[in-house]
Amino acid sequence: MIILMIFAAASAVYGALVWHIASGSHFYRVWWGLAVAFGAAAFGAHAGIFVRMPAIGRHVLEGLVLAAAAGALIMFGLILTQFHAEAPDGLDTLIVLGAQVRPDGPCQALKYRLDTATAYLKAHPETRCIVSGGQGDNEPESEAAAMARALVQKGVAPERLALEDQSHSTVENLRFSAKIAGPLDQKIGIATNNFHVYRSLKLARKAGYTAAFGLAAPSTALYLPNNVLREIFGLVKDKLAGNI
């Protein structure tokens, strides 16, 4: 019971932390939902509710919890397989996936993506680049426009850049960028944060990219649990939607 109460408190505090950074996502509510679930479980254990449940009901509940935990662990393992992805030399095109743009510029996650893309583009001057991301309701401009300007400031020639500024999800990033990239059997890299590479590659292959490679950018350790959990939900959602 004490462990459940600790989990409940930790989930509530972490959810508040994620909410405080105003990422534009409502995923912090999942942490508060977990806090409620852990709190309810602690109360149930303290009140002896589970002990008084019919055996079959208790076994079903335990089975569902274990199945969910096992599934989450498997997906976490799959996400880790691309955590350090390095694109090969000689990419024809590098697609940089967008993330939140704030009034003062790209968020930290997007800065990591841009730094990683810049390093690759400078080392491979023959590779062209597509920056992909539309404008959200809470953004001052499209993510593509902000990314293109940042890359030019970092020394990437403007003529190497193409903007895809209509997408509002990773699925759309890749589908819309495909119309700009040309033949999808060319070597195409996808630059995004480490926790996001696995799902991005799955989506790309489903969208017709036959030679897609991940290029993993770093991420902020403090928000990694939130990002990984969000990716797990994203994998489930995209699987159910037929996107992967």
Verbal overview:
This protein is of the alpha/beta class and 244 residues long. The model has no long low-confidence stretch (mean pLDDT 95). It has a five-stranded parallel beta sheet with strand order 5-4-1-6-7. Helix 1 (2-20) packs antiparallel against helix 2 and helix 4 (55-80) packs across helix 9 (224-241). The longest helix is centred in the N-terminal third of the chain and has 26 residues, at 55-80. Helices cover 56% and strands 12% of the residues.
Identify the notable features of this structure and list them briefly.
single chain; 244 residues; alpha/beta; five-stranded parallel β-sheet; two-stranded antiparallel sheet; elongated
Question: Short description, anyone?
Answer:
With 244 residues, the chain is of the alpha/beta class. It has helices at 2-20, 28-47, 49-52, 55-80, 108-123, 143-153, 170-181, 197-206, 224-241, and strands spanning 93-97, 101-102, 105-106, 128-132, 161-164, 188-193, 212-217.
